[in-house]
C-alpha cells in the first residue's frame, strides 16, 4: 500500500505528500487500550492500518526485509524513469529544482518516520532511499550539463577551435604515460582518438555523440558479456576512461588551449554519461535495477559526506565555467584562456 501511494503522489509531482505518507504508514496506531480493535468495512482501511508492533515484528524477519528491499528498488527505479525519462532531453528548470529538493529531503523524512524501528530495519530502507536520492541528483546534474553542452556542439566556430586545439595534443605522450597505469590496448586507444576527432569534425549533434559513446561502451565491454567479471570490467573501464580524459585535459591546459572551457564542459558531460551508460549495462547484465547496482555499497557510510560535498559544489563549478576571466600565473604554471560558455539556470546548492 505504501508503494502504490508513493507512486501516485510522485507521478502527480506532489512531492511534499511523501513525508506524510511515510509518517502514516510507519506509525500506524496500535489497538485500543481495552484490547478491542475497530473493524472496518473497507478493505483499504484494513490494509492501511497495521499496528506498529506487528509491522516491527514483520520487518525483523530477514526474508521480509529482502522482499522490501527488492520492492523498493523496483518502485524507485520506476519513479526515476517517470521523473527523468530521458537524461539528455531538456527538463524545465522549475521541475529540476523541485526534484533536487525532493531528493535532498528523502533520507530525513524516512529516518524520522521510522524512529521507533530497529536500526537494522531502518538501514535497509534508508540505503535504498539513499541510492534513489543520489540517482536523482546525478541525473539532474547530467541533464543540466547536457543542455549546456548543446550550445557548444551547435557552435561551428567553437567546434573548429576545439578541433584545432585537439590536433595539437601529443596523444603519443598521453598514451605512453597512461599505458603504465591503464594497460589498455594501444590500437583501441588510437581508434577511439581518431573516432573522436572524426565525430567532432562532422559537427555531430548531442544525440549523435550519445550514440557514439554508447557504441564505445558496447565495444569495450563486449568481451566480458555474460561473464561474472562483467561488473568489475565495467568499473575498470570507467576508471580508465576518466584517467585518459584527464590526461588530455591536462595537455590542453598546459598548452593554454583557447577552447579549454568547451573541452572541460564536454569532458564533464561525457564522463557523467559514460557513468550512466555503464550502470545500466551492469544492471542489465546482473538482472538488477540501476538503483540496486548503485546501492550495492551504500552501507559504506563514510563515502556519503564526500558525495554530498561533490553534489553541493556542482553549482559553483558550473558558474566558474561561465567566467571569461583569464587565469594568470607564473612561468611554471602557464595561463589558461577560458572562453565564455553560457549556462542558463544554474543549479542551486542543495
Automatic annotation (TrEMBL):
It holds the Pfam family BCD_RFX. It comes from the Eukaryota. Keywords: DNA-binding. GO terms for molecular function: DNA binding. Residues 315-350 are annotated as: Disordered. Coiled coil: none annotated. Signal peptide: none annotated. Residues 3-284 form the RFX1-4/6/8-like BCD domain. PANTHER family: DNA-BINDING PROTEIN RFX2, RFX TRANSCRIPTION FACTOR FAMILY. This is DNA-binding protein rfx2. It comes from Ilyodon furcidens.
Amino acid at each position: 500500500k505504501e508503494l502504490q501511494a508513493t507512486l501516485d503522489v510522485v507521478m502527480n509531482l506532489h512531492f511534499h505528500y511523501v513525508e506524510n505518507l511515510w509518517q502514516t504508514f510507519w506509525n500506524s496506531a496500535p489497538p485500543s487500550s481495552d484490547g478491542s480493535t475497530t473493524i472496518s468495512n473497507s478493505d483499504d482501511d484494513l490494509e492501511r492500518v497495521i499496528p506498529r508492533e506487528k509491522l516491527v515484528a514483520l520487518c525483523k524477519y530477514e526474508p521480509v526485509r529482502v522482499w522490501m528491499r527488492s520492492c523498493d528498488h523496483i518502485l524507485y527505479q520506476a519513479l526515476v524513469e517517470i521523473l527523468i525519462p530521458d537524461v539528455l532531453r531538456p527538463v524545465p528548470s522549475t521541475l529540476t529544482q523541485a526534484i533536487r529538493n525532493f531528493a535532498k529531503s528523502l533520507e530525513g523524512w524516512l529516518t524520522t518516520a521510522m524512529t521507533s524501528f530497529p536500526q537494522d530495519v531502518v538501514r535497509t530502507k534508508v540505503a535504498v532511499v539513499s541510492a534513489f536520492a543520489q540517482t536523482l541528483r546525478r541525473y539532474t546534474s547530467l541533464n543540466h550539463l547536457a543542455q549546456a553542452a548543446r550550445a557548444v556542439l551547435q557552435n561551428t566556430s567553437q567546434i573548429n577551435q576545439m578541433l584545432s586545439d585537439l590536433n595539437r595534443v601529443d596523444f603519443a605522450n598521453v598514451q605512453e604515460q597512461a599505458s603504465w597505469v591503464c594497460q589498455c590496448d594501444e590500437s583501441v586507444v588510437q581508434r577511439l582518438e581518431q573516432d573522436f576527432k572524426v565525430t567532432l569534425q562532422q559537427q555531430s549533434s548531442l544525440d549523435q555523440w550519445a550514440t557514439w559513446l554508447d557504441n564505445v561502451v558496447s565495444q569495450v565491454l563486449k568481451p566480458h558479456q555474460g561473464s561474472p567479471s562483467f561488473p568489475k570490467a565495467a568499473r575498470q573501464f570507467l576508471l580508465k576512461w576518466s584517467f585518459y580524459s584527464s590526461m588530455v585535459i591536462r595537455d590542453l591546459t598546459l598548452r593554454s588551449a583557447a577552447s579549454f572551457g568547451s573541452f572541460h564542459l564536454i569532458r564533464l558531460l561525457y564522463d557523467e554519461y559514460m557513468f550512466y551508460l555503464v550502470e545500466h549495462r551492469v544492471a542489465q547484465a546482473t538482472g538488477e535495477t540501476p538503483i540496486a547496482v548503485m546501492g550495492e555499497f551504500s552501507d559504506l557510510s563514510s563515502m556519503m559526506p564526500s558525495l554530498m560535498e561533490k553534489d553541493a559544489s556542482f553549482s559553483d563549478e558550473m558558474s566558474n565555467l561561465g567566467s571569461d576571466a583569464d587565469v594568470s600565473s607564473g612561468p611554471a604554471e602557464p595561463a589558461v584562456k577560458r572562453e565564455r560558455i553560457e549556462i542558463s539556470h544554474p543549479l542551486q546548492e542543495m
